[in-house]
Design a protein that fits this description.
This protein has seven helices and five strands; from the N terminus they run H-H-H-H-E-E-H-E-H-H-E-E. The protein is mainly alpha-helical and 182 residues long.
Amino acid sequence: MFKIRNKVAHQGTFYKQELERGRELHNELISLIVVAEEKIDELVLNIEEKEAIYQASINALANKDNDELENQSKLPGLKLIGKIELSGTANKVFRGHPVITEQELIEELEKVESAGNNKFVGLKWFVTEYLAEKSYSIGFSYSLLNILAERGRIDLYDVDSFDGSYTIKAVKSNHEYKGDES
């Protein structure tokens, strides 16, 4: 498909048989994606695997310059990524958005909790409104929250909507968390 794409993109001679082959490859690709989407819930990664994927993503960011990142449509690799401690306070940047550290995320969550404006902190609101307003990368923020929940550092729980017609995923810090004793 890449070879066919290059012929079209670079105004090369393009034959009918290549168009037909491109359509075949397109249909095969769509089939693969549909099967993968159907099986996505079967994918189970342990925390070490999530952290390794996250670190590989951070390393990929470190090896790209800002122009290359700005022109990149997405970070290569899996959507499901974890988070490990980043050294120092300097965040890596993904498409112009800083990647939030564990400490920063916990501090931001505790700020929202201590404001006391709501009975709970909605997960989607916290990431897509509150953290995004501070320019943090949404995808990396969700990844970190999932890892922190798995570690027991935060709690994710369900809250019924006001009228009870749907469930809201909420997040809160786990003040009883003791961390690694090692």
